Every structure is written in structure tokens, then in C-alpha cells.
Amino acid sequence: MVVFNEGNPECVRNLLRPAERVLRQGRDITVEDFETRKGLWERIQDSYSRYLEGECGDFLRDLDAAFRSKFEAALAILAWSFWKKAEDFPPAEKRFSEREIGLIDEILKYNVFEITTKEDILGKLYRREPETVQLLKTYYLGMDRWIEEQLEDPEIKLPLRYYLKRTWKGYREKIDAAINEASKYGWFRTLMEEWEREKAEEVEAVRESYEAKVGELKKRIAEMVAFFEEERERLEAELRSSSLEEIGRLRREREELVERFEREKAELEKRLLELKDEELKKKLEEELAKARGEALREAKLLEERLRRRELELREKEMELRKRELELSEKEDILKSRIEEILAMSGKVEKGSRLVLRDEARIGELNFVGRMKSKFAGDVRLLGKTYSVESVEEGKGEDTSRFAGELDERSLKNLPENRYVEVTLKEKKLLGRKERILIRGLYLTRVERLAELGLDTDPLTLAEINVHLIDARDSKGDARTVLVIASPLGFEERVRRYVSSEDFHRNFYSENVSLILLDTETGEVIHNPNDRYARALAPLVRLELDEEVYAKVRECVRKKLEGRDYLPLSECLDCGEEEYVRRAFYEIGRDGNLVKYIDGFGLVLIRK
């Protein structure tokens, strides 16, 4: 029969010598000086590592577990000694958790039973030796159950649990035998009744302390809320600096209060751990958690009140700043710029838009997604049904060329002039089946957005012509419907040309149709005589909540009443910025102007 599975037992005995020494000394290891214990730690760790690397060969599983448990337990006892003597030794702190050290501490208290018999324990009980009586009292009132639960905890290292379980089993057998024998006598039963009474008194004391502290915290929170309510009227009068400073102080007090509650909670939890009564401990922990939840909810409500008050004060401060701005030199500059723009109105269309880089990127992704969803199934056009043969997406611009100029986030927010090509085929049994190629292109000036981060000029006829000519010169017998979408909009010359008879003659007869989509205003432009463009326009038109938009538009109109100009920044309270900008452009087409003015943003100007 093979006992060691080819392992070398003499080798293991030599490696285990420093660990065996620590295990024999147990709690008495603390009499050794720091350097001695540090040296033992290093020797045991080195021996443990050599064993794990197979220096002594392979052993059967049970033997291997026993050897490893001794190494681990010896290291744990040394770690406990550093903790017990409040010595700084980072390797021990890193290797063993507080829970593991706490378990070692409790079990080592009982190592006196290593050298005592049942008779010895009974003798100490008869003589009422304080240390033995206290250990048995703690054991009787729940320590045994607590240690058994800890030994099942997977967070505690398995080799350490293996060793401690065997060690504790030996202690427990002696203690149980002694208690069973002593319980035959009336004096010991009386002693156990005293223990039970002391336990009940301890539980009640903790409960009263808990209730008093939680009540105190709740009272402090209520006082703080009441104080805030009393201070609100004074803050109303101060309006600016003093009011905001007071809110900052209240916010700091709120944070300090929460921190204080957490400290009190942690202290109570530590005291609850000392009880060892799991059922009561769980109940008190639940009550403490409930009290914490209520306190945090109160603190959150207070923070919300503070936030609302702060916003109210800052809005009033912004109103004061706005009035100051109207009297400042900046206001004079704005008026001067507006006069220049009015003098030039009708001559140029530049500067009538404001498109930011990231907004253009979002608009591009929305357009591509909408095109794909609209052509996900059969399409009904001009009394015919078309099946979707293919849907392909591509990039019109390689934005990687700007990698040296933009950071990663800005590069990802740069539009790529993506396009979606949809091929439709007429569904019918006989005859020639018509094909339609729909090319949906999102068009921006990528170079300008990369350089400046914004663009303010509508697309020109020259920029549209490039894509029209490419569509006209493309090969194939399918009709091409070019859909150009842009947040920049299109200059008036583009609108006139697309609606003209010349455009219809030059492109419609060449199997090319054009639809322009202004993604900012939702306007769709096409030649009125182009039946393909007219039929497809509803599919590319933006979806708009008309009721919400109508309210935003009316809000902007009211703000413009009695004024010569209106910055977009003053209308953001009317609704979403997308709807506000759309209202600006629509009102601008009603005989007014919309211009981007550097330093002021988009401005609606009454002509």
C-alpha cells in the first residue's frame, strides 16, 4: 500500500519545522520580539512556496491538505500577533482579512484547552477560576455556533479553515464533555441561569443604546430641515452672494450629518458583533438598516430642496446679469453687428445656421437609421409595389485623416458623410421590372467641422451639383433618386434651381430625381414635376411632434414681440433646443433673418 504517493516525508518535516514551532506556541508567540516573528514569517512563507512548487514530491490529497493547512495556520497566527501588538507588517495585512484575523483571535482564546482534560476543566469550574468561567460562558452563549458559521465561510482560505476546524473540534469535545458533566449539579445550573440573565441584560442595553442613537440622529436631521426652512426667507432677501454661501454651508452640514450617521452605524455594528446571538443581531441589523434608509431619504429630500433653491437663486442672478449685459459694451457690439447684417441682407446667406460637430454626428446617425428602417420591407410607390433587394451603408469621408488634429472623442464625434443605398425592384409577374436606386446621403463640410467644431453656412449649388452630376453619369438602367440631407440647409439659389424647368429637363429625363432634406427645419425640397421625388418625399420626411413644436414656436414668437433681435440662448426655456432652432428658421423665412454671430450664437433678427 502506497501511503505518501511517492512524496518525501522527511523533506516535508524539515519544511514544516518553523510552522510547527508557531503552532505549538499559539498565543504565546506574542512573547517573541518583532524581528523573530518577522523572520519566522519569511521562513514559513519560503518553505510553503517550496512545498507548493513540489520540492518534496506529491502526496495523497488528505496529507497534502493537512500539510498546507499547517503552513497557512502558522502564517495566520503570526499575522494575528502583528495585529494584536499593533505592529505594522504589510505582508500580513495583505494576506489575511479582518474576518480571518478575528476568527483566529477567538479560537486562540481557547487554546488553553490544548493541555487540559475534562477533569481539569471541571476542577477549574469548581474553583470558579475567572478565565475558565468566562471562556465557558462565552462558549455557552453562542461562541460555538458563531465559530462553526465562520468555518463555513468561503471567504476564509480553505487550508486555514481545514486546520481551524480540526483544532476547534478538539476543544469543543472537551468543553462539551465538561459542561455535560457539570450540568448534573445544581450550582452549575444556577450559574448558567445567571449567564442567561446577563445575556438578556446585555441585549437590552445594546437595544436601548441603539434606539437612543438612532433617535438622536433622526432628531438632528429634523432640526436641520427645520433650520433650512427658517433660513429660506432670509436667503430670499439676500439673493446673491450671501444666499449662495449659506446654501453651501447647509450642504456641507448635510454631508457631515450623513457621515456622522454612518460612523454611528458602524460603531453599533461592531457592538452587535460582540453579542454572538445571530438571531438578535440580524433583527437589530435590519432595524439599523431601516433607520439608515429613512435618514438617507431625509437627507436626499433636503439636498433636493437645497438644489431647487440654489437653481432659483442662480436664475435670479442670471436675470441680473442679463440686464447688465443690455447696458454693456457687448450689447453695443451686438447691435452694431446686427446693423451690418441688416445692411447686407439679401446679398449673402452665409452665417444663417449654427451646426456643432457633435450635433451633426448625431443627426447623421439618426438619418442613416431612419433610412434603413423606412426601407426594411416592401415599398408602395406610384401605384406599384417594390421589393427591397439590398440596403448598403458606406462612408463618404475618411475621417482618419484628421487623427493628428483631433483627440479620440472629437474624432468619433466628426460626421463621415455616410450614405445608404437602397435598391428597389418592382414586384410583378410579367414584363420588364422597374428598378430604382435610392441613394440617401448625409452631407456636411467635414473639413470645417474638424477645424472649427461648427459650421454656419448653408450648402451651395456647387456643392449639390457634384453629387447630382455623379448620379447623372452613373451607369445602369435603374432610376436614381438622390436624397441629400443636411443640418446646414440649402441656399436660396439651390431651391430655385431644383424647382425650375431646366432642372427637370436636365436630370429627370436622365433617370435622376433629387430630394433635399433640411434636417434642422424638416423642410423637404424637390421639383414639383418629379413624380418619383413627390412619391418618396413622405418616406424621408422627418417625424415631428406638431403639438409640442407649435408650443415652442409660439413661445419664440412671444419672446420676439417688441424686440429687434432675439438670441437663441434666451429661448431654451421654450423647449428642446432642436425645436427652438427649427422655430428660429421658420420665423426667419417669414420676412426675418437668422444669423450666427460670433460670441452670441444664433440670433433671430426682425427686418
Q: What are the salient characteristics of this protein?
A:
single chain; alpha+beta; three-stranded antiparallel beta sheet
The total of helices stands at: 21
Strand order of the largest sheet: 2-3-4-5-7-8-9
Poorly predicted segments: 231-242, 341-348
Strand content: 5-15%
Residue-averaged pLDDT: 77
- Let me know the largest β-sheet: 7 strands, mixed
Query: How far do the termini sit from each other?
Result: 108 Å
What are the SSEs and their pairings?
Elements: H1 9-25, H2 34-52, H3 61-84, H4 90-95, H5 98-108, H6 118-126, H7 130-151, H8 158-182, H9 186-238, H10 241-273, H11 278-326, H12 329-344, E1 355-356, H13 357-374, E2 379-381, E3 384-394, H14 408-412, E4 419-426, E5 435-442, H15 446-452, E6 454-455, H16 461-473, E7 479-486, H17 492-499, H18 501-507, E8 512-518, E9 524-526, H19 531-540, H20 546-560, E10 565-567, H21 577-589, E11 593-597, E12 601-605
Parallel strand pairs: 5-7, 7-8
Antiparallel strand pairs: 1-6, 2-3, 3-4, 4-5, 8-9, 10-12, 11-12
Would you mind describing this structure in some detail?
The chain is α+β, with helices and mostly antiparallel strands and 607 residues long. Helix 10 packs antiparallel against helix 11 (278-326) and helix 20 packs across helix 21 (577-589). The protein has helices spanning 9-25, 34-52, 61-84, 90-95, 98-108, 118-126, 130-151, 158-182, 186-238, 241-273, 278-326, 329-344, 357-374, 408-412, 446-452, 461-473, 492-499, 501-507, 531-540, 546-560, 577-589, and strands spanning 355-356, 379-381, 384-394, 419-426, 435-442, 454-455, 479-486, 512-518, 524-526, 565-567, 593-597, 601-605. It has 21 helices and twelve strands. The N and C termini lie far apart (108 Å). The strands form three sheets. Strands 2-3-4-5-7-8-9 form a seven-stranded mixed sheet, sandwiched between helices. It is elongated.
